[in-house]
Amino acid sequence: MKVKSLVLAALTSTLLVTGATAAELKVGYVNTQRIFRDAPAAQKAAKKLESEFAKRDQDLQRMAKQLQGLQENLEKNSVTMAESDRRAKEKEFGELSREFQRRQREFREDLNLRQNEENAAVIEKANRAIKQIAETDKFDLILQDVVWVSPRLDITERVIKALAEGK
Q1: What are the distances in angstroms from CA 137 to CA 3, 28, 32, 116, 157?
Q2: Domain of 130?
Q3: What is the pLDDT of residues 61-118, one digit of tens each?
Q4: Reported pTM
Q5: What CATH number should be reported for the domain holding residue 26?
Q6: Domain count, the chain
Q7: H or E element: which one contains 142?
């Protein structure tokens, strides 16, 4: 019982001290998801990745159609095919399927790696803009990715504008 009272007293005194200084605290909030969606640097990075990986994506789509055609051919004609032809087609299908899965896995890994690189560059630019805004407007604390925040604390639009201006 005494321990609970001591803990409660300590929490109460901490809250009172914090409450007195919180009135002087200037807080802002930045929505990083919105920056990745709306900031010109993020949109430019997305277009860059799209063009960089477009050919490989098209190749994978062609390969997927080829696999689908082989599978349909096997399903439709396997009963009427000679045993050796059927085995050859099944072998071809299996090899193509493994090759497709390997290429698809490599594509995803390469894309994820490049997305992480581009996102890191966007975050770096955004952090510089956030720091500049914080110093200019004398913010004490700027938060990212919170559960809920009052719209009056949201400075995301200012960060996006700063990124658009190249700051």
Answers
A1: 44, 10, 20, 31, 15
A2: 2-165
A3: 999 999 999 999 888 988 888 889 889 989 999 999 999 999 999 999 999 999 999 9
A4: 0.70
A5: 3.30.910.20
A6: 1
A7: strand 141-144
